[in-house]
Design goal:
two-stranded parallel sheet, 49% helix, seven-stranded mixed β-sheet, 9 strands, alpha+beta, globular, Beta Polymerase, domain 2, 2 domains
Length: 407
């Protein structure tokens, strides 16, 4: 681990430009953790004293878009990347129930609903969740700032430490419980005793978090390459039953064990650049073993024989496995296609055009390769089914329509 941090050139230029406009600006959050651990950051977050409106003035309205209500920030298009820029915040004065808002259960007294009260960089650091998330780095002047006094040390020691009172931090925003355990799973960190105690006693608060926020967190976990470790951490700390109850209920089954192995292999191949970070593929990898067990009582790799009702069962298990999250419809549909093609890849004559021309074939082939790495060990399988096939048939069908987003 090193404190000498080298950020991407376009991030450096964005920060330099804001500083030249007179605004104090830093890299914050996960990018600093990754850089200190010698990992390439997936993305960068920037925080500045400039308001969202002032950021737009610096970069222009065409490139900078203000988003959010609870937490207003800017999405900046720069050098082909989408960069998130937030304004320094301070702890809001008002918490608790939103006036006029009716809820089924009482809201925790200190829960934060509005977070748009701007402040200084130091105020921003002290209102953050954990010390390792409160580090600020100025790449222009090569200055790493640790306002809490614990962040750098906790990074070196691998400690998740809540800033201030852990119980209050989790009551303010229960999603912080999830984020603490993501740090445990992704970085192999360990909560300090007070934070660990607060995590276990505050898990019930997650019922107050908006489902949309939790679903977005699940998408991030599946898109990333540490999901298998993060889900294991959720189980170890008693959180998984509140997040993915189906997976928790089936934790002590061979299907669950195989599901996390498939997800781990998918993540390994993404890290190595063999395949891209498809969320629907991650969903299919997690669901596949439970579908095998449901349809055919099979062991790992024993694919089912397609029947009239297998399509229905695949969709039902997909929905059950990711309840209570409202996964984007196109992701669920894509995962269903990936899974439906699996038996045809295993049992159909190699290179059959009736299979390779199917929508979802490429993702499905990758899921087949994950199984092959773990179970079948067939050295010829990758040659039997080509990685790249003609998409003329699909393009013809989509003519005159917008290209479908990646799934």
């Amino acid at each position: 681990m090193t404190d000498k941090l080298i950020v991407a050139p376009h991030i450096y230029k964005v920060i330099e430009r804001l500083q030249e406009a007179g605004f104090e600006t830093y890299v914050v959050g996960g990018a600093i953790r990754d850089l200190m651990l010698g990992r390439p950051p997936k993305d960068y977050d920037i925080s500045t004293e400039a308001t969202p409106e002032q950021v737009r003035q610096v970069f222009g309205k065409r490139n900078a878009r203000i988003i959010g209500k609870r937490f207003k920030l800017v999405h900046l298009r720069y050098s082909g990347d989408l960069i998130e820029i937030s304004t320094f915040r301070r702890t809001p004065d008002e918490t608790g129930q939103i006036p006029g808002k009716q809820r089924k259960s009482p809201i925790p007294e200190n829960m934060i609903f509005r977070d748009n009260e701007y402040g200084t960089a130091e105020e921003d650091a002290w209102r953050r969740d954990f010390t390792v998330n409160a580090l600020f780095y100025d790449p222009v002047h090569d200055d790493l700032i640790d306002f809490t006094g614990f962040g750098i040390g906790d990074m070196h020691e691998g400690i998740v430490r809540a800033i201030g009172d852990p119980l209050l931090r989790f009551e303010e925003d229960p999603v912080r419980i999830l984020r603490a355990l993501k740090l445990v799973g992704q970085y192999d960190f360990i909560p300090d005793p007070e934070t660990k105690k607060a995590i276990k006693s505050s898990i019930y608060l997650i019922k107050h978090a908006a489902n949309s926020r939790l679903s977005l967190e699940l998408e991030k976990i599946l898109k990333g390459t540490y999901g298998h470790n993060i889900l294991a951490a959720f189980h170890d700390y008693g959180f998984l039953g509140n997040f993915l109850p189906y997976l928790e209920e089936n934790w002590n089954t061979p299907a669950r064990s195989y599901a996390l192995e498939l997800l781990a292999e998918r993540n390994n191949r993404v890290q190595r650049g063999i395949y891209r970070d498809s969320i629907s593929l991650a969903m299919a990898a997690l669901a596949l073993p439970f579908i095998e067990a449901e349809i055919d009582n099979g062991n790992r790799g024993d694919l089912w024989t397609p029947t009239k009702d297998s399509k229905y069962k695949i969709r039902r298990i997909l929905l059950e496995a990711f309840t209570p999250h409202n996964m984007i419809k196109r992701l669920t549909s894509s995962a269903q296609r990936i899974l439906s093609i699996q038996p045809r890849l295993r049992y159909t004559e190699a290179r059959s055009k009736t299979v390779t021309s199917l929508q979802g074939y490429t993702h499905s082939r990758e899921l087949m390769m994950l199984q092959n790495e773990l179970v079948w060990k067939d050295e010829n399988l990758s040659r039997r089914w080509p990685k790249f096939v003609s998409q003329r048939k699909h393009k013809k069908k989509r003519s005159g329509k917008k290209h479908r987003k990646h799934t």
